[in-house]
Amino acid sequence: MRFSPPDASELLALWERAATTAQANRDDILLAEQCEAPPSSLGMRNAALMALRARLFGNMQLLRGACLSCGAIAEFAVDCAALSQALQPSPGAAEPQSLVIDGHRVEFRVPDIDDCRQASRECTDAETFVSTLLARCVTTSERDNCTPCAPEALPASVMAGLSHRMEELEPGASVGFDLACPVCDGRWTTLMDVGEVLWVELRDRAERLLIEVDALARTYGWTEPQVLAMSATRRAAYLQLIGAA
User: Residue 167 in contact with residue 51, Cβ under 8 Å?
Assistant: First the structure.
């Protein structure tokens, strides 16, 4: 793994690689900057993306969520390094699992990125996506009397228990925050697409860099490598001199 923060040129190169990649594969491009190979585990992917965010832009990340009741904005900060550690799968999560619940015995594995991508291709709504995803990860299911039971025929209570157990094994598969509205005191949970949030931040930073290069190149005739080789402080000083800051 590479831990040194990239310079401005490397940041733009990462943005360019991600920008020219299909959205479905963009996380893999970002993960390749942090890992030897993009992991298949959902929790490990989110953990690596949070670690990359800390390396690119600093450890503290400011986020916002809109209240579901009144629309007011709640702002909060997360510690990327601490969250990255918290998102790691439980020991043994990658091993085959077994669950006995409500007269049924289910053998399963936790979903990975390929399962999610396939379920997304097959489904058009969230409810169908969840049931399809769970069904893909059930390897054996039967009633207490050893009668086989197809995954799609499992009772809702069993499917809910299975989903809960998967969340325990890999809590980082889904990243969410419990928020309180600063205006009406409403409470809600907001989910975060870690890869998408990181991509938007990278895109915005890259666009600002390109604007800086354009302004300084037009004024001083410097090339892109010359502008990007400057420190952020020196670029800001020159931009201030020409009134472009």
Answer: no
Cα gap 145→151, rounded to integer Å: 16
Q: Record the tokens describing residue 107, joined without a space.
A: 């053998």
For residue 100, what are its two tokens?
């006995």
Exposed (0-12), middle (13-18) or buried (19+): which is 24, by Cβ within 10 Å?
A: exposed
Residues 6+ apart with CB under 8 A from 238: 216, 220, 230
Which residues does the chain have with pLDDT short of 70? Answer: 1-4, 245
Q: Which residues of 116-126 are buried (b: 16+ CB within 10 A; e: fewer)?
A: beebeeeeeee
- pLDDT tens for each residue of 198-207: 999 999 999 9
The residues pairing with 23 across neighbouring beta strands, listed in sequence order, are none
What element of type H or E holds 73? strand 73-79
d(CA 218, CA 223): 10
Amino acid (one-letter) located at 148: P
Evaluate whether 202 touches 11 at the Cβ level (below 8 Å).
Answer: yes
Rounded Cα distance between 177 and 162, Å, is 22
Distance CA 114, CA 134 (A): 13
76 contact partners, CB below 8 Å, separation of at least 6: 62, 63, 64, 65, 177, 179
Please list the residues that pair with 190 across neighbouring strands.
177
**pLDDT tens by residue, 37-62:** 899 999 999 999 999 999 999 999 99
* pLDDT reported for residue 1: 47
Please name the residue that has the structure tokens 């390749």.
32
